[in-house]
Design a protein that fits this description.
The structure is a single chain. By secondary structure, the chain is an alpha+beta fold. It has 3 domains: 84 residues, Pseudouridine synthase (2-Layer Sandwich); 132 residues, Pseudouridine synthase (2-Layer Sandwich), CATH 3.30.2350; 56 residues, Archaeosine Trna-guanine Transglycosylase, Chain: A, domain 4, CATH 2.30.130. 21% of the residues lie in helices and 40% in strands. The strands form 4 sheets. Strands 1, 2, 3, 4, 7, 10, 11, 12, 13 and 14 form a 10-stranded mixed β-sheet that branches. Strands 15-17-18-19-16 form a 5-stranded mixed β-sheet. Strands 5-6 form a two-stranded antiparallel ribbon. Strand 10 and strand 11 form a beta hairpin. It starts with a strand and ends with a strand.
């Protein structure tokens, strides 16, 4: 059973909860997910099964779209509504001020990782430092806000759509918007509506899956989104053995086939951009 299922994660479940549930349902151990959603969040969670677990890093790297709702004038230690309130104030901002502050974050910026996260520093998860009240320097990541637009504003509640690169924390983005405004802001709702090619319209609840009302995306179907080439006599042995080959493609990834059978996914070799190396051996 090698493939992908697009799950619509429900609120208050962790991504690991979903994996464990489907692990028991499908009675298989080779199962994972491509991109953690906080318990508060709902929406697209890509589940990988069998050989497709090797695609996790590739799937995680896809851009992600969210519908996020924040409350202005409120700060918490977790940057979302589940955390402890650290400050609260009245807000008197107009639409243009809020819009300008939201649009300020379009493009690339250095985003500080929230302390309530599973990112490790010196072998220890950040949330462990927080729970033990220990100080730690929070790492920063270069992230890209590719699109952002306000959907509606109702007093201090703002809902917006955002398209982001891998590694972007939406609750950190909201915290940064709040700091830029000067009043603070906290995430109160988050829906992941899209990841790469897959939309929430393509997703299924756990109830759908256990009642056999879902679509299973097979490995070969997923690979169709990538450019491809047939192996030939000049590279067959090298590719089948997972060796370096001369790079003959401009795209980030290329799938090599033997007839209808996928053999490997190749990517550029960082140490020599004239060469390509296997990203994943399929057979």
């Amino acid at each position: 059973m090698d493939g992908i299922i697009i799950v619509n994660k429900e609120k208050d479940k962790t991504s690991r909860d979903v994996v464990n549930y489907l692990n028991d349902f499908f009675e298989m151990t080779k199962i994972g997910h491509a991109g953690t959603l906080d318990p508060l969040a709902t929406g697209v969670l890509i589940i990988t099964l069998g050989k497709c677990t090797k695609l996790t890093d590739l799937l995680t790297g896809h851009d992600k779209e969210y519908i996020a709702t924040m409350k202005l004038g409120l700060r918490t230690d977790t940057y979302d509504i589940t955390g402890k309130i650290t400050s609260q104030e009245d807000v008197n901002l107009n639409f243009d001020e809020i819009k300008q502050s939201v649009n300020h974050f379009l493009g690339e910026y250095e985003q500080e990782v929230p302390i309530y996260s599973a990112v490790k520093v010196n072998g220890k998860k950040l949330y462990e430092y927080a729970r033990n009240n220990e100080s730690v320097e929070l790492p920063k990541r270069l992230v890209k806000i590719k699109e952002i637009e306000i959907i509606k504003i109702e007093e201090e509640i703002v809902t917006f759509r955002v398209l982001v690169s891998k590694g972007t924390y939406i609750r950190s983005l909201i915290n940064d918007i709040g700091n830029y405004l000067g009043c603070g802001a906290t995430m109160i709702e988050l829906i992941r509506t899209k990841q790469g090619e897959y939309s929430i319209n393509d997703s299924y609840t756990l109830k759908d899956i256990v009642t056999n009302n879902y679509k299973f995306i097979e490995l070969n179907e997923y690979l169709k989104i990538f450019p491809s080439q047939q192996i030939d006599e000049s590279n067959e042995k090298l590719i089948k053995n997972g060796a370096l080959i001369n790079k003959t493609f401009d795209d980030k990834y290329l799938v090599y086939y033997e007839g209808d059978k996928p053999i490997a996914i190749y990517q550029e070799y960082i140490k020599d951009n004239t060469k390509a190396k296997p990203f994943m051996m399929i057979n």
